[in-house]
Design brief:
The protein has 446 residues and is of the alpha+beta class. The protein contains 13 helices and 19 strands. It folds into 2 domains: 225 residues, no CATH class; 134 residues, no CATH class. Helix 2 runs antiparallel to helix 3, helix 10 runs parallel beside helix 12 and helix 11 packs across helix 13. The longest helix has 17 residues.
Amino acid sequence: MNHGEIALRNAQAAPVTVLGHRVKRIPTAGKIHAGIQILTPDAAKHRDIVAIYEQGVAQNISFQRISHRILEQFPQIKKPLIPKNVPWFTVRPEDFPNRDIPEQIMHLYGEDRGEGRRLYRFPVIFPTDIWQLIMPHELATWSANEKRYWSEYSADGRTRHCMMFAPAKVAAGSKRIIRTFGGRAKQLRPDNHGICDPECCPQFQARQCNLSGRFVFYVPGVQSIDAFELATNSIYAMSRAIERLEAVSCLRGGKIGGYLDSNRSTFYITKMLREVSRIGDDGRPVKAAHWIIELQAPIDVAMLLTNQCNGEPLRLTDPSATLLNGTGPVEFEPASVAGDEPGELPDSAAHIAADDDGGAKVHNSGASNAGAGEGSVEPTDLGAMWMLLGEMGIARSDFESYAAKKWGSGWHINPRGRARVYDELRRHTNHPEGLKDQIEAVIGLV
């Protein structure tokens, strides 16, 4: 099984090795499918093919294996199965490295609504606050065995490129293929100058290039260190999910990952029957009802706003561990999946920050201004932040884009927000490359 990977929120840069300067990543393994496949009309005419299909479904094996079994015995059937949109999700042992996980999911969240026990709705927790990593997506063209072309944005997020794998290199004076290191090389597609323009793309117009995306998440109560994924090619599902993720991020001060409030509320993934429109072959809009993946967040918005006004009281701090480790504030959020952002201490607690030399010093929050020594800087001073950015060699415009996506566009207005961002900069004083990698990962995924 292929394991996808997503960048962790607030990931620190790993030491440089022979494999290069890499960001820590979290593996994903295990797929939940959005629908099923059924026999085509031609295949359904054969009684033996119907028997093979029903046997495979009863054994809960993948539809790919069912299709392979049919083609082995009936090679004249070019396409035995076609997708069908249904109101439930499919969970099969073959799609998970730990084959007990589907049983756990179905035991916890399966329902019987008259068609047997199905997975109609389940809770999810996201491991990062960056929605582009929660829901990676691209335009892609696939050949029989591999991805042929795919879209990829430039580092500044302004240009969408069309990429392909670079041809294998041949050693001079021989036919020997040169071994590559670090995986297959990629390049801009030469015949369209590397520009992804669907309206001018022959593959897109021929329906060979399509939008492909996936949700990446954990499922509460399911014992797995790996995240799971749910693939989708619906622009409606992804657009509506982005709206909800951005809304929750705004309400929670830039946070999406972990539990949503003190009641351990979570997002839910389900399906809703909605009318969607498309342009038909005659150029006119056509409406049809489809089961669309829906991201829901049944939460008390007033509770979220109260938490923000009170300085996020869910965040607990252990100052002694912080002081001993010589790091920024250490926090413990109950049952958080992927760790959390360091935040502000209560006003009555001591504030601990890292010195430039890696040591630690303790400030009393109630007397931070009066008791500051000479040369100390008020952490809410934007000018001091920009000066520190310059010393670290980071462009102010890049950091502002990064901060707006991570903490919300109003971070510089709120004194607590400014203090939080200043703490982030201070923690990276001795290793600015780690912060540069985070900034590039965030603003490069626009």
